[in-house]
Amino acid sequence: MSTSAATVSLPADWRDFLALTKPRVMTLVVFTGLCGMLAAPAHIHPILGFTAILCIALGAGAAGALNQWYEADLDAKMKRTQKRPLPAGRMDRQSALHFGVGLACFSLVLMYFAINLAATLILAASILFYVFVYTIWLKRRTPQNIVIGGAAGAFPPMIGWAAATGDVSTMPVLLFALIFLWTPPHFWALALFVKTDYANAGVPMLPVVAGERTTRIQIGLYTIPMILCAAAPWPLGFTGAIYGITAAVMSGLFLAMAVQVAIRRTGPDDDMAPEKRLFKFSILYLFVVFGALVIDRWFA
Ligand code: HEM
Ligand SMILES: CC(C)=CCC/C(C)=C/CC/C(C)=C/COP(=O)(O)OP(=O)(O)O
C-alpha cells in the first residue's frame, strides 16, 4: 500500500484534477471507443452516442485518478511522474480517492441508465481491471503486469460497440485482441528508454527484470499476432479494402520498426532513437487503424 509521498503545500485546482485523469492517454482510449461504436452495424442516436463516449472518458479518467491515488509513492520516485499532483504535494490522497470513486460511480450509473447493461458491465470491468488487477495487484509484482493488466485499455472499442448494439460479437473481440497484443510493444518500447526510472522506483518492468535482449525479442514476438489481428477483419468480411489496405500498410511499418528494435544491440550512450520512434508510431498506428475502420464503414 502506498504512503503519502509529499507534504501537501498548495491547494489543488481544476488543472490538478484534470491531470489525475491522464488526459493525453485518454484521447486514444476515447478514440478507440468512439471507433468501436461507429464501426458497429447499428445506429445509435447522436446524443446517446455522445453520452456513451462521455461515460468511457469519465470511467477512464476515474481509473487514472485511482491509479495515481494508489501509486503516489512510485510516482514520486520517477522523473516522468514526479510533477503529478500527488507526488508534487498539490493534492492530498483522500481527494484523489474521492474524486476517482465518485467519477467511476457517476460514469457507470450514467452508462446504465442512458445506454445499456452490456456497455456498463464492460466499462466496470475495465475500471476494475486497471485499478485492482494492474495497479494494485500486478504492477509491483511481475514483469507480466502490462500483458495481463493491459486488458483494461483494450476494452473501450468493445464498450463502444456494446453501446450501439447492446451486445458483443466476433468483431469487437478482434478489436479487443488487437489492442491487447499492441500494448506490450507500445509499453516495452517506452520501458527500454525509461528503464532507469523504473529500476530506481523498484517496479519490475521487463527490461529491469529480464534485461534488454529479452524485452526486444518479446516486442518482436507480440507484433506478429498483433498484425494478424489487425489484418483479420478484411478477409473475415467485417470490413472492406479501405480498412484492409490501411491496416496492411501501417502493420508493415510497425513490423519494420519492431524488427529493427528487436535485433538492435545498444551501448550505454545509445540515444535509443529507434525505440522512441516505435513508441511514438505505436500511438499513431492505433489512431490510423481505428480511423480507417470508421472511414471504411461509413464512406466505402
Ligand atoms: C498497461 C498498459 C499500458 C501501459 C503500462 C502504458 C504506459 C504508458 C506510459 C508510461 C506512457 C507515457 C505517458 C507519460 O509520459 O505520462 C504512455 C503513453 C501513452 N499511452 Fe500508453 N500504456 C498502456 C496502454 C495504453 C492504451 C491501452 C492506450 C490507448 C488505447 C495508451 C495510449 C497512450 C498514449 C496516447 C500515450 C501518449 C501520451 C502522451 O502523449 O503523453 N496506452 N503509455
Ligand atoms: C475505459 C477505461 C476504464 C480505460 C482505463 C484503462 C486505461 C486508461 C488504460 C491505459 C493504461 C495506462 C494509462 C497505463 C499507464 O500505465 P501506468 O499506470 O503504469 O503509467 P504511469 O507510470 O504513467 O502511471
TrEMBL record:
Transmembrane annotation, as ranges: 25-44, 50-70, 96-115, 121-138, 145-164, 170-194, 215-234, 240-263, 283-299
Stored InterPro entries: Protohaem_IX_farnesylTrfase (IPR006369), UbiA_prenyltransferase (IPR000537), UbiA_prenylTrfase_CS (IPR030470), UbiA_sf (IPR044878)
Keywords from the UniProt entry: Cell membrane, Heme biosynthesis, Membrane, Transferase, Transmembrane, Transmembrane helix
Any single Pfam family the record assigns to this protein: UbiA
Pathway info: Porphyrin-containing compound metabolism; heme O biosynthesis; heme O from protoheme: step 1/1
Subcellular location field: Cell membrane
EC numbers: 2.5.1.141
GO molecular function list: protoheme IX farnesyltransferase activity
Biological process annotations from GO: heme O biosynthetic process
Example of a GO cellular component annotation carried by this entry: plasma membrane
Catalytic activity: heme b + (2E,6E)-farnesyl diphosphate + H2O = Fe(II)-heme o + diphosphate
Keyword Transmembrane: yes
Protein's membrane topology: Multi-pass membrane protein
Function (record text): Converts heme B (protoheme IX) to heme O by substitution of the vinyl group on carbon 2 of heme B porphyrin ring with a hydroxyethyl farnesyl side group.
PANTHER family named in the record: 4-HYDROXYBENZOATE SOLANESYLTRANSFERASE, PROTOHEME IX FARNESYLTRANSFERASE, MITOCHONDRIAL
Miscellaneous: Carbon 2 of the heme B porphyrin ring is defined according to the Fischer nomenclature.
Entry-linked NCBIfam families: cyoE_ctaB (TIGR01473), PRK04375.1-2 (NF003349)
Family in the record: Belongs to the UbiA prenyltransferase family. Protoheme IX farnesyltransferase subfamily.
Entry protein name: Protoheme IX farnesyltransferase
Source species of the chain: Sphingomonas kyeonggiensis
Gene that produces this protein: ctaB
